[in-house]
């Protein structure tokens, strides 16, 4: 989500005539797009900022901008802490960068953190990839997971209307983009705030409807979406994924914990049994689906046995990948005030243990690809080995393969090719091309 915001802000700067500096320490304008999901992400901001603030003494024209979730969370406090900052802007204001910079040019120190109706961005994002693009479909989050800072920094859910999404994707397709990832913090909530209901009382602006609506856009070969919430993940959505050819067989559905009491304390709104049912239905309809999730260890009050339930679920469901984190208390979240916080040693120990299991499971899961022929979308050269190209399978596995094809030509980014998998590692594959 932050990467997508960064690309949009970079696009705005580009449209204003800014070009990329060789090094951040030489730039005339520095914008940090920040993350506050965990404390270590937040702390990074302060160390970067310190270096830039010093530079301002000799270079008074330097513009220093803090965007994103730390900006939203800290607001004016940031100005008190680092008075050299020119602009503090929350994520809802990303599309207003040009207007806000005009105020800075007029000599103001600006804080833009008030709730804001997110505007359609008419400039073109400066995307890092020419093949794969992120497309926001819903901003914000209305859930209240007790550990999570997102709702307080990204605000209320705001869905973009289907027509805007459709035309953005058409534009991307016409510029050669092949893969689209629809983005939302809780993407299953897409459309809840939009009008549209059938005679039978069913909403017509759901994620499922959106997938059907954008599916036939010419030029787009692959569609992905993230992040799914088990509370709202519907069977209708699974059916659509099975039916719609371009929708890739990869599901990212965070489970957070394998224990029902912890899930309840987290305010997640589902049980682990419900989660297992979702996975079973996916595997029933789409047997080769790859499934990933997120998990938090050492949540306040988590006992050793409750932690073991999380390990058990990873082993039982055989995830392809799990993003793990030790619980980090966040400002203005209920769980951060609870007295039953766990000590650092337990966090470190549990994180190490879960990561070990995740790696073992991923390695085991990846062996199913050995010898298979997979469709890979060529993204570019492997930066670590220039004789190789890299791309992803439909299941989102990073895959490396030789640059040349049999006729001694070279593959181009954006091509869909067939790769026979000859080597599997926990989080990537290698193979030889066969077409
Ligand atoms: N909207 C998504 C994910 C949001 S944040 C969802 O509901 O799943 C991405 C991940 O960061 C979360 O899935 C969670 O595993 C992790 N996370 C969020 N807050 C955290 C905290 N306070 N401590 C540790 N991990 C956290
Ligand atoms: Fe945070 Fe929960 Fe919203 Fe995800 S669903 S962003 S974890 S509050």
Can you give a write-up of this model?
Helices cover 33% and strands 20% of the residues. It has 435 residues and is α/β, with parallel strands linked by helices. The chain has 4 domains: 2-112, 3-Layer(aba) Sandwich (Rossmann fold), CATH 3.40.50.12160; 129-248, Transcription Regulator spoIIAA (2-Layer Sandwich), CATH 3.30.750; 254-368, Transcription Regulator spoIIAA, CATH 3.30.750.200; 370-434, OB fold (Dihydrolipoamide Acetyltransferase, E2P) (Beta Barrel). The longest helix is centred in the last third of the chain and has 23 residues, at 344-366. The protein is globular and about 60 Å long. The model has no long low-confidence stretch (mean pLDDT 94). The protein binds S-adenosyl-L-homocysteine and iron/sulfur cluster (SF4). S-adenosyl-L-homocysteine is lined by residues 37-38, 147-148, 150, 185-186, 227, 229, 254, 256, 294, 296, 325, 327-328, 330. Iron/sulfur cluster (SF4) binds at residues 141, 143, 145, 148, 150-151, 185-186, 229.
Furnish the topology, listing elements before pairings.
Blueprint: H1 2-15, E1 29-34, H2 39-55, E2 63-68, H3 69-74, H4 76-81, E3 87-89, H5 97-105, E4 110-112, E5 132-136, E6 138-139, H6 150-154, E7 158-159, H7 162-174, E8 179-183, H8 207-214, E9 222-226, H9 235-243, E10 250-252, H10 260-266, H11 272-285, E11 290-297, H12 304-317, E12 321-326, H13 344-366, E13 373-381, E14 388-393, E15 398-402, E16 416-424, E17 428-433
Parallel strand pairs: 1-2, 2-3, 3-4, 5-8, 8-9, 10-11, 11-12, 15-17
Antiparallel strand pairs: 6-7, 13-14, 13-16, 14-15, 16-17
Helix pairs in contact: 8-9, 9-11, 12-13
The structure holds S-adenosyl-L-homocysteine and iron/sulfur cluster (SF4).
S-adenosyl-L-homocysteine is lined by residues 37-38, 147-148, 150, 185-186, 227, 229, 254, 256, 294, 296, 325, 327-328, 330.
């Amino acid at each position: 989500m932050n990467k997508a915001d960064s690309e949009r802000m970079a696009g705005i700067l580009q449209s204003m005539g800014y070009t990329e500096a060789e090094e951040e320490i030489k730039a005339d304008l520095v914008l940090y797009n920040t993350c506050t999901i965990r404390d270590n992400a937040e702390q990074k901001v302060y160390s970067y900022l310190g270096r830039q603030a010093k530079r301002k003494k000799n270079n008074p024209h330097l513009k220093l901008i803090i965007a994103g979730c730390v900006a939203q969370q800290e607001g004016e406090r940031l100005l008190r802490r680092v008075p050299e900052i020119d602009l503090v802007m929350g994520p809802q204001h990303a599309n207003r960068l040009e207007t806000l910079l005009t105020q800075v040019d007029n000599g103001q120190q600006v804080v833009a953190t008030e709730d804001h109706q997110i505007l359609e961005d008419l400039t073109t994002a400066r995307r890092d990839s020419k093949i794969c693009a992120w497309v926001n479909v819903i901003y914000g989050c209305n859930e209240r997971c007790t550990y999570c800072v997102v709702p307080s920094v990204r605000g209320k859910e705001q869905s973009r209307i289907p027509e805007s999404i459709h035309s953005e994707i058409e534009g991307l397709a016409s510029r050669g983009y092949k893969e689209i990832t629809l983005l939302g913090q809780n993407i299953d909530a897409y459309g809840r705030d939009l009008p549209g209901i059938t005679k039978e009382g069913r909403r017509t602006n759901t994620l499922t409807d959106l997938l059907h609506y954008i599916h036939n856009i010419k030029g787009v070969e692959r569609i992905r979406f993230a992040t799914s919430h088990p509370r709202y993940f519907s069977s209708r959505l699974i059916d659509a994924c099975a039916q719609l050819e371009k929708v890739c067989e990869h599901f990212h559905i965070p489970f957070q914990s394998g224990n029902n009491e912890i899930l309840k304390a987290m305010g997640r709104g589902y049980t682990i049994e419900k989660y297992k049912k979702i996975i079973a239905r996916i595997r029933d309809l789409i047997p080769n689906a790859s499934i990933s999730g997120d998990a938090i260890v050492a949540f306040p009050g988590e006992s050793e046995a409750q932690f073991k339930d999380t390990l058990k679920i990873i082993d039982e469901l055989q995830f392809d990948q799990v993003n793990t984190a030790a619980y980090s208390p966040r400002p203005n979240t209920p769980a951060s005030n609870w007295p039953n916080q766990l000590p650092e040693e337990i966090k470190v120990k549990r994180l190490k243990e879960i990561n070990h299991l995740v790696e073992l499971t991923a390695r085991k899961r990846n062996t199913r690809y050995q010898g298979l022929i997979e469709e890979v979308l060529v993204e570019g050269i492997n930066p670590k080995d220039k004789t190789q190209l890299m791309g992803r399978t439909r299941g989102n596995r990073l895959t490396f393969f030789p640059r040349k094809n049999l006729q001694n030509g070279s593959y181009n980014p954006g091509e869909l090719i067939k790769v026979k998998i000859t080597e599997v590692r926990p989080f990537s594959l290698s193979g030889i091309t066969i077409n």
